[in-house]
Design brief:
The chain is of the alpha+beta class and about 475 residues long. It is built from 14 helices and 17 strands. Helix 1 packs antiparallel against helix 13 and helix 6 packs across helix 7.
Amino acid sequence: MPRRRIRVTGTPEAPLRAALAALRTELGVPESFPPEVLAEAERAAAAPLPQVPDVTDIPFFTVDPPTSMDLDQAMHLSRRGTGFRVRYAIADVAAFVVPGGALDAEAHRRVTTLYFPDEETPLHPPLLSEGAASLLPDVTRPAVLWTIDLDADGRTVAVDVHRALVRSRAKLDYATVQRRIDTGTAEEPLALLKDIGEARERLEVERGGISLNVPEQEIVERDRTYELAYRAPLPADGWNAQISLLTGMAAADLMLAHGTGVLRTLPAAPDGAVGRLHRTAHALGIDWPHHVSYAQLIRSLDPHLPHHAAFLQECTTLLRGAGYTVFRDGDLPAITTHAAVAAPYTHCTAPLRRLADRYAAEICLSPASPPAWVLAGLDALPKQMADGTRLAGTVERECVDIVEAALLKDRVGDLFDGYVVDVDEHQPAVGKVQLDSPAVVARLEGGATPLPLGERLRVRLTQADPGTSKVRFAPWDQWKR
């Protein structure tokens, strides 16, 4: 099943909490931080700020989900002649983590922050990730500051990166950003997010890149019960993502120019995979003329429409195979690009939540002579990140299944309407159904009759067990016979 982000509003009920706790135990998810790690974090948080340039006069702002406290990025946008200047401050995790120390060792064990519906398992102790290292508003923080100058079309014309002290002025969420821009109440540094974001989106189209606006699954507590719904991304989500992509591309170019680095790479999808998507589009009633590219089609879809949302979920299958590729001493790898970005790209903007980003930042700060600890750990990084990313993917998939089962456990036998969004090529009676309501995508087993891909179907819930994370449906016609 394609991975879907999931959020919980309110306090999960006991069976759901128990199932999520069992999942953490089953997967061996780290629990509390060891005492020596917490002690080192306390010392790091209490240490004086580094002696680096002070740019706290620049009014940075952050854009994140409302409840987020681990704020990796803050930005300031301005005009520069006919073009633009993007200042992008990234949390300077290396200012707090001593190479080879307890914090460093624990980060290499955890690799990435894991997000569960009821809590998260952070990469770094919250004292740092949600405190001293986080780019929270109205406090001075050390950062890796990228300054990227763009021309009027949004193309990069100059890049600079160095350490600095920054101070965010506002913690904004996506809905607030969208509302202020739409109503014309945003001041220029925020209003320019739309101008720059749309310019970068046009360039993405030009180079054949792809941004999937996959709906986010959300669990909302209402009247002591829970509901599942989809949240389609706002345009502001995409504009914000373009700033991160811009920085990741600039970092990759810097690494490639100096011959040492770590890239996020993705090979082009095989023809068979694209052909399968053509068949899925046809089945879902989506017009995909042969002269229209995959990238063009994606941009024409509306994630608010159920059959478009279903297709966007299926498109995530083309992103499988992404990995981390390291190189050094000018020996460039065979693949240097990320197929969805359609350019060289690296992860460098989320060091509070991802181990590789700390390495990428240090390489970019000293591209001609990266620190010894970076070079010593570079070769092992791809496997560490692959293992951590695989665990994060398992957590996401299992959490979706557990939550769906918990919310449907009292409705076994009920009928629902939905779309058949996937059919197993080898078992045509097995596939997936996306319900109209609630927002569930689950296994559908049709017995001996092939499932009608892309068609509406009434289905019966046959299983919903939070303990086994299983939700199963069967076509209602099968039960009528």
